[in-house]
Amino acid sequence: MSTPFESQVLEANAKYASTYKHSGLECPPLKKAVLVTCMDCRLDPKSAYGFDLGEVTTIRNAGASGRDAARSALLTTHVLGAEEVLLIKHTRCGLLGVPSEVVHDIMMKNLGLTDSKDVDNFEVLTFHDLEASTREEVEYLRNHPLALSKVRVTGWIHDTDTGLLKKVVA
Questions:
Q1: Does domain 25-169 have CATH number 3.40.50.720?
Q2: C-alpha pair distances (Å), 20 with each of 14, 15, 23, 25, 150
Q3: Are the C-beta atoms of residues 126 and 104 closer than 8 Å to each other?
Q4: Every domain of the chain and the residues it spans
Q5: pLDDT digit string (tens) for the chain, length 170 residues
Q6: Residue 139: per-residue pLDDT
Q7: Bridge partners of 87?
Q8: In whole angstroms, what is the distance from residue 146 CA to residue 69 CA?
Q9: Is 38 annotated as a binding residue?
Q10: Helix, strand or coil, per DSSP, at residue 166
Q11: 93 annotated to bind ligand
């Protein structure tokens, strides 16, 4: 039995599939690009950055972490031929300025635990300076030991109040 939300998803999917026109689309991104952005529900990369299905690989994770996205970004550049990576963080991110300990405390409370090495070792990857973090994440991807030198990695900040995108690392 489906939950109301699952039923909504299935109904929307049936409508989507009834007009689906992308059969046979290949896996490599047509624009040879990867977007690394936050999983925040206020972001809509397809609409905000003007691409269509099949044009870019989009990697979304908490905080638009280059460290967290490295595996997928490296696979897309090595195996699927992407030549460009845009790391896009955003204003008012839920991980901005939050100490990891606060997140760990919430997790412990939710799990009903007073002590847990698993929670203690869980990497939250919070950050305190949006532009500095963007620079650090770009450098991490650029200097990863498996990174291809021909792949361009840039850093951006999306303003969640205006929708505007600003390049901060060329």
A1: no
A2: 10, 9, 8, 11, 35
A3: no
A4: 25-169
A5: 899 999 999 999 999 999 999 999 889 999 999 999 999 999 999 999 999 999 999 999 999 999 999 999 999 999 999 999 999 999 999 999 999 999 999 999 999 999 999 999 999 999 999 999 999 999 999 999 999 999 999 999 999 999 999 999 99
A6: 98
A7: 36, 155
A8: 13
A9: yes
A10: strand
A11: yes
Tokens standing for 45? 């990369």
Cα separation, 53 vs 27, in Å, equals 11
Instruction: State yes or no: 158 annotated in a binding site.
Output: no
Q: How far is CA 48 from the centre of its chain?
A: 14
Pair type for strands 33-38 and 56-61: parallel
Phi then psi for residue 169, to 5 deg, are -135, 110
Q: What residue type is assigned to position 129 of the chain?
A: D
- For residue range 76-122, list pLDDT tens digits in order: 999 999 999 999 999 999 999 999 999 999 999 999 999 999 999 99
What whole-number distance in Å separates Cα of residue 87 and Cα of residue 20? Answer: 29
77: Cβ contacts below 8 Å, ≥ 6 apart:
34, 83, 85, 147, 148, 151
Helix segments in the chain, DSSP class H: 4-18, 45-49, 66-78, 100-111, 117-120, 130-142
The pTM of the whole model exceeds 0.90: yes
**Which phi and psi (to 5°) does residue 88 adopt?**
-120, 105
